[in-house]
Amino acid sequence: MPDSFRGLRVAAFESRMAESTAVLLSRHGGVPVEAPALREIALDDQTEAIEFGRALVAGAFDVVVLLTGVGTRFLVQAIESQIPRVAWKKAFEQTFSIARGPKPVAALREFGAKVDLVVPEPNTWRELIDAFRATGPKPGMRVAIQEYGESNADLIAGLEALGAIVSRVRVYRWALPDDTTPLRDALRAIVAGEIGAAMFTSMKQVDHVLEIAGDEGIAEALLTVLNTRIVICSIGPSTSTALRNAGIGVDIEPAHPKLGRLIAESAERWDSVSKSVSPRAFGTFKEPRKAVLSAIETRGDSRLINESFFHDSIFMKACRREPTETTPVWLMRQAGRYMAEYRELRSKVGFLDLCKTPELAAEVTISAAVRLGVDAAILFADILLILEPLGFDLEFSRGEGPVIHNPLREASDVDRVNVVEDLAQVSFVFDAVRLIRAGLPRGLPLIGFAGAPFTLACYAIEGGGSRHYDRAKAFMYRDPGAWSVLMERLVDATAWYLNAQVAAGAQVLQVFDSWVGTLCGRDYIEFVQPHMIRLFKRIDPSVPVIHFGADTGSLLELQREAGGDVIGLDWRVDLERAWARLGESVAVQGNLDPVVLLGPIERVRSEARRILDQARGRAGHIFNLGHGILPSTPVDHVMELVDIVHAYRSSDRA
Ligand code: CP3
């Protein structure tokens, strides 16, 4: 990425927008070090604000200047503790109002109050004065200024020079943050050469940074490092002036004083300013990204996150059918009983309990992916977990696999399938996703998954595994109406469940329609495809989706029509021919027979090469098995398989 921080640690002193700052920095390849340097607190004594409100209503002002959004809101809150909104707004309508920039404008709009003049960028006191002068102000006019922190002497002098009689209305002041530990840590890290850039987004941050540095006894060292080894990024002219007054040179100031511009332009230019950034100023892959993770959580900001960390991984590229030097590989059931450490854990914890303990599920997921060296991790969970919130009584009994104790047998049973209104019952899955995302190596994509409605319906009707799915299919033929209702409820719950996994931090999704291969094409079209189409339409479009089914050689085109960016192939089809049938619009995943992994290693090698030869290095092949790894598989064979795939170059083709 040419315009990337390339892993540079960037200290950000922003407080209110700390989270967005961290997300944006990450998006531009930086490792954010959050060091909030301010806290805005309303003055305990709101007398000044209330007095202003009374004077306003009494017609004492000709002009009101609003300098900040937060301040405007504080001001209105204070006024409204005493004066009703209709009253102050009526008086406000009679005055000429000036907003310093978009934030006070937005705040005024929230109260439905008008704005007469918006100060143009970069929104400093100079533009304010110029814009106001241009309106031809009359000498002797009475101007009230909503102030924040300290008053701006230049602004007051400028207004007075235009003949104004200025009143100051102080509504809040700045304080150090409650917890200054992150700021102190960041300043020490700067001095130690572990930070590559420092980002200042307000004047007051400069004072607080110096104050804390003084407190820590590192003020002098800090100034030296800031001026020689750290790229100094400043949001705009006032902050830059404050920095220069403090003896700190500014390297980057964006053309527009906006957070987004600051970060984008800093990402573009940090490398070309003459600062000798220490090699230690680059972050490691595992560094926690607290704000980034919480942003995913609270806003479901998957697009932002996915673009930033994972976009260039070979797995994501293959999902998008972009060429990659090596073929990405992961294996269905890569975490499971074939691994001794998994069996060891399972000797102590039941399978469902394992799924429901996010720390353990995360450990199993991460350790398998890291040990195998695969190109994607898959969430440790099970497709049947979603059946619990739907009202099914699920158990995994030893030796027998899954059992549903209250299966659907009659059409009327569908009435007791819950319309899922709350995913709280499976929140452990999202907690696991968050933990996994936080613990996985940076750039290693995480696959979330769910069962497809047909496969889930099979379990819900059969009550467990089955050979012919005779009960499920007979139900479907006999009661197409009830079948549709069931499928719709499953689709609704599944779409929501998948999107919640993305919101929690999954980069890719796989939909397992493991048993749909039991249907002929006509039945698929009639009973399944419309529901699959609806499911795929409802999945977050920012993540690639893998559509997998076993024994679906006769359904591939119909599955592609239903949806998915990648189609999973099992070993019964020939990869080359299946891909030719599917055409250019999808990537493919597969398709080694899992049983081959049990056999002689030579066979593993030759079969893996055969599949890779068939793919001919075409963009959009993800290597995988045709179905899950069997419990009796030797781990060595799995590890060697991963190596074979990674070592293969299509130019080596036999
Ligand atoms: O692939 C992974 O590493 C992620 C974890 C994962 C599991 N199940 C863990 C699991 C995934 C993606 C699944 C999906 C799943 N579960 C499917 C679709 C994939 C497929 O195999 O077609 C299905 C049909 C299920 C239902 C299910 N879960 C069955 C039939 C069984 C019993 C059979 C078996 O393999 O034991 C399970 C249990 C299960 N799910 C285990 C694991 C690791 C084994 C449980 C144990 O530890 O005893």
Roughly what percent helix?
A: 40-55%
The number of helical segments is 27
Tell me how many strands there are. 19
Unreliable sequence segments: 285-289, 295-301
**Hetero groups bound?**
coproporphyrinogen III
Rounded mean pLDDT is: 91
Largest sheet: 7 strands, parallel
| Assigned CATH class of the largest domain | Alpha Beta
- The secondary structure category is alpha/beta
Distance between the termini: 35 Å
β-strand amount? 5-15%
Q: What is the approximate shape?
A: elongated
CATH architectural designation of the largest domain: Alpha-Beta Barrel
- The spatial strand order of the largest sheet comes to 11-14-15-16-17-18-19
Q: Quote the CATH topology of the largest domain.
A: TIM Barrel
- CA radius of gyration is 31 Å
- Count of individual domains: 3
Give a description of the structure.
- The chain has 654 residues and is α/β, with parallel strands linked by helices.
- The chain folds into three domains: 9-38 and 177-281, Rossmann fold (3-Layer(aba) Sandwich), CATH 3.40.50.10090; 41-175, Rossmann fold (3-Layer(aba) Sandwich); 293-647, TIM Barrel (Alpha-Beta Barrel).
- Helix content is 45%, strand content 14%.
- The chain has 27 helices and 19 strands.
- Strand 18 (587-592), helix 26 (601-615) and strand 19 (621-625) form a beta-alpha-beta unit.
- The chain starts with 8 loop residues before the first strand and ends in a 7-residue tail after the last helix.
- The relative contact order is 0.08.
- The model is unreliable at 285-289 and 295-301 (pLDDT under 50).
- The structure holds coproporphyrinogen III.
- Coproporphyrinogen III is lined by residues 332-337, 346, 351, 378, 380, 382-384, 396, 401-402, 449, 465, 512, 514, 550, 627-628.
